[in-house]
Design goal:
633 residues, alpha+beta, Rossmann fold, eight-stranded mixed sheet, four-stranded antiparallel sheet, 11 helices
C-alpha cells in the first residue's frame, strides 16, 4: 500500500449536487476540485447512465464554474449555471441532449443566483439581483462608492424568463424583499416563494415569509411568517388539499434544533411533523406524492417518507447521505454517500435501498492505507447518551496502545461527526492517523443527530456541559489504555476552534492545541460576525446587554487567557466574515501578553474555509508539524 500525502488530499475532485432526470435514466453531477489554483474554482458537469455500467462522461468542455444542474420535465434538456462568458457572472445555459450543444439563455448583467425550470416548457423562474444602472457604472468609475448601510442592499428578486423571446420580466409582487427559494407545485400550479426582509444573514435569519405566486396572472398571496433559517420547500397533496412543507429551526431556538413544518395551505394550519424524534431533519424533498426526509440519526442517516401519520422509515444508511435527488414519482433516488474508508460518491437506487455506486471520482485513493475507524458510545457525567468516533494510527490495533491522542471537535455546534471517511483538507482524523496519532471525534450535546432537546442544550451555555462531554470521552480512552495521558492534543475549527481555545484555558492536560478560525469572544462575534443573533443565542448575551460583566464573558476563551500554558497554533483566513479575523488577533495578543508559546498564521484572500491549494497544503503540513513538535518529540 502507498502512503498518504498532502498532495493526494488536496488534489482530488469530489462530486456535488447530483440531479436525476425525471425519467430516471440519466444523472448529472458537478465535479469540483478540493482546492483552487487560480482566481476561479473551475468545475465541470458530468453525465452518467443510472442503469448500466458505462463510465461517466463530461457534458461540457468549457473552462468555467458550472453548477446547479436541473432537468426539463421531459428529460430532454439539461439546464445549468455557468460563467464561461464572463468569469464570476453566472448565466443560465441549456444543453439539448439530442445535439449536445450548450448555449446561454440569459445575459443578465448582475448574473443569476438560482433558477427553476417551470412546468410551462417556455418559462424559467430566475433569482437575480438588479442589473447595474448607468449611474452605478458612473459612480464606480468616479470611485463615488460610499456604502450607506441599509440603502441599495443587494437583493435577489423573482424574475421570469421566456425561452422563446429571451425576455426577462420582474413581477412587482414582493416589494423589496430578498427571495431565497422557489418550488412549483407538482401539478404545475402555484409557485411557492420563500423571502426574507434582507440578504443580511444576521437580520434575515428571523424574517422569513412564505408566498404563493401565480405565473399566469402574475399575482401573489402571502402565507405568513416561517421559522428561522427556513429552507427545503416541498409540496404534497393531502385529503384536505395541498400542503407546503419546509425545514426550519424549532421555536424559540435560534442556534439549533431543526424540524419539518407542514402548512395546510387551505386552512393555514401549521404543524411540526418531527416533534420529539431522536434525530434531526436535514433535507426535505418533493415528489408527486409524499415528500422524502433525510434525517441525521446519530452517526448514521435515516431516509423516511412523510406520511399523514408521521415519518415512515424507508431505509438506513451508514455515515452521511447528502444532496438527495429523486425522480418525480419517488421510485428512484440518488445521493452522495460513502463508507468509513471510501469518500463520498454518487449512489443510486430505490428509496428502500440498497443504493449502488455509479461514480468513482477519487481512484487515486485506492490502496492508500488508512487507520481503523470505530464508533464509540458512552455516557456523559449527567447520564446523557453520547457517541463519537475513534480512529487508530495506520497499521495499529488497540493492542499497540497507548497512543498520542488528538481530539478534534466539530464546528457548528449544530453539526456532527458521522461514520464516514474522515479525510479532508483541514486537520482530519485519517491525516493524523497516517502520522501515528489516535484521533477522538466526539459528538457532545448541542450537535445534530439526536433530536431538538439534545441540540438546544448549549444555548447560553457554550463550554459548559459540552466541554465535560468531551472530557468524559477522553478520560474513557485514557482509562481503556488507548490514549497516553502525557501526549494529548486538542484541535478544531470554528466552534471546534472555540472549544480548543476554551480547553487550554480550563486545563493544562493538553500538550498542544490547534485553533482554526475559532471563537474567542462571543460578545465581539455577536457584534461583528455575519450571524450575530445566532452567536448571541450561543454566548448568552451581547455587549449592549446593559452594564457588564455579561454572561458571554464567562463563556469566552479570552476571559481565561491568563491561565493558558499549552502551546497553541492559531490559523485564520484574512477575509473571514463568519468568524472575523479579529477573533484570532485578540487571542494572539493575549497569548503574547502572557508569554504563551504560540504561532499565528493568517491566510490572505481566504474566508471561513481555506480554498487555495498552497494554503491547504500549508494547513495540512503545518498542523501536523506542530503536533509532532509537542506530542512526538
Amino acid at each position: 500500500m502507498t502512503g498518504l500525502t498532502a498532495e493526494l488530499v488536496v488534489d482530488g475532485r469530489t462530486p456535488q449536487t447530483p440531479a436525476l432526470a425525471p425519467n430516471g435514466q440519466l444523472l448529472c453531477y458537478v465535479l469540483a476540485p478540493v482546492s483552487r489554483t487560480g482566481d476561479h474554482l473551475d468545475t465541470e458537469l458530468w453525465l452518467v447512465d443510472t442503469d448500466c455500467a458505462a463510465a461517466s462522461h463530461r457534458a461540457t468542455t468549457d473552462t468555467a464554474a458550472e453548477s446547479r444542474p436541473r432537468w426539463s420535465a421531459d428529460s430532454a434538456m439539461l439546464f445549468f449555471l455557468s460563467d464561461r462568458a464572463d468569469r464570476g457572472i453566472p448565466q443560465v445555459h441549456r444543453l439539448p441532449l439530442a445535439d449536445g450543444a450548450a448555449a446561454a439563455v440569459t445575459n443578465w448583467r448582475a448574473g443569476v443566483v438560482d433558477y427553476l425550470p417551470l412546468a410551462d416548457p417556455n418559462l424559467v423562474a430566475l433569482l437575480a439581483q438588479d442589473e447595474p444602472t448607468e449611474q452605478d457604472a458612473r459612480r464606480a468609475r468616479d470611485r463615488d462608492d460610499a456604502v450607506v448601510v441599509g440603502e441599495r442592499e443587494p437583493r435577489a428578486r423573482l424574475r421570469l424568463l421566456d425561452l422563446h423571446t429571451g425576455r426577462v420580466t420582474t413581477p412587482d409582487v414582493f416589494g423589496d424583499r430578498h427571495v431565497v427559494e422557489l418550488r412549483q407545485r407538482p401539478d404545475g400550479g402555484a409557485l411557492a416563494v420563500l423571502t426574507q426582509a434582507s440578504s443580511d444573514n444576521d437580520y434575515g435569519l428571523r424574517t422569513g415569509q412564505l408566498h404563493l405566486f401565480d405565473t399566469t396572472t402574475g399575482t401573489a398571496v402571502d402565507l405568513g411568517a416561517v421559522g428561522a433559517d427556513a429552507h427545503s420547500l416541498a409540496w404534497w397533496p393531502g385529503e384536505d388539499g395541498w400542503h407546503l412543507g419546509y425545514i426550519a429551526l424549532t421555536p424559540p431556538a435560534l442556534q439549533a434544533g431543526t424540524a419539518v413544518f407542514d402548512l395546510a395551505v387551505g386552512s393555514r394550519v401549521l404543524r411540526n411533523r418531527t416533534s420529539g424524534l431522536p434525530m434531526c431533519p436535514t433535507e426535505l424533498h418533493q415528489t408527486d406524492a409524499a415528500p422524502l426526509i433525510v434525517f441525521a440519526d446519530g452517526l448514521n442517516t435515516t431516509l423516511a417518507r412523510l406520511d399523514p401519520t408521521g415519518p415512515t422509515t424507508l431505509s438506513q444508511h451508514p455515515g452521511r447521505l447528502d444532496d438527495l435527488t429523486t425522480t418525480p414519482t419517488g421510485e428512484k433516488i440518488a445521493a452522495l454517500t460513502g463508507t468509513r474508508y471510501q469518500p463520498a460518491n454518487v449512489h443510486v437506487g430505490p428509496p428502500s435501498g440498497p443504493l449502488r455506486k455509479i461514480t468513482d471520482t477519487r481512484p487515486e485513493l485506492d490502496g492508500i492505507a488508512l487507520g481503523t475507524q470505530q464508533p464509540l458510545a458512552y455516557r456523559a457525567a449527567d447520564g446523557l447518551d453520547l457517541d463519537g468516533l475513534l480512529v487508530l494510527p495506520v497499521g495499529k490495533s488497540a493492542s499497540d496502545s497507548p497512543f498520542p491522542l488528538v481530539t478534534i471537535v466539530h464546528g457548528g455546534p449544530y453539526d456532527r461527526y458521522a461514520d464516514r471517511c474522515q479525510l479532508f483538507w483541514f486537520p482530519s482524523a485519517q491525516w493524523l492517523a497516517t502520522a501515528g496519532y489516535a484521533v477522538f471525534l466526539p459528538n457532545p450535546r448541542g450537535g445534530q443527530g439526536h433530536g431538538h432537546q439534545f441540540a438546544s442544550r448549549v444555548a447560553g451555555r457554550v463550554g459548559q456541559e459540552e466541554w465535560t462531554d468531551i472530557l468524559t470521552g477522553i478520560d474513557l480512552l485514557i482509562t481503556e489504555g488507548v490514549a497516553d495521558p502525557d501526549r494529548l492534543g486538542i484541535a478544531g475549527g470554528s466552534h471546534g476552534g472555540f472549544m480548543s481555545a476554551w480547553a487550554v484555558g480550563q486545563t493544562d492536560q493538553f500538550r498542544a492545541a490547534l485553533v482554526v478560525a475559532g471563537v474567542i469572544d462571543w460578545g465581539m462575534l455577536a457584534a461583528t460576525g455575519e450571524n450575530g443573533q445566532f452567536e448571541a443565542a450561543l454566548g448568552g448575551s451581547t455587549g449592549w446587554s446593559g452594564v457588564g460583566p455579561h454572561p458571554h464573558d464567562a463563556v469566552s476563551p479570552i476571559s481565561f487567557a491568563s491561565r493558558v500554558r499549552t502551546p497553541v497554533l492559531i490559523l485564520h483566513g484574512a477575509e473571514d466574515t463568519n468568524v472575523p479575523l479579529g477573533q484570532s488577533v485578540y487571542f494572539h495578543r493575549a497569548l503574547r501578553h502572557f508569554g504563551v508559546e504560540h504561532e499565528f498564521v493568517i491566510y490572505p484572500r481566504e474566508g471561513h474555509s481555506i480554498r487555495e491549494r498552497n494554503h491547504q497544503l500549508d494547513v495540512l503540513r503545518r498542523t501536523r508539524a506542530w503536533l509532532d513538535r509537542w506530542l512526538r518529540p
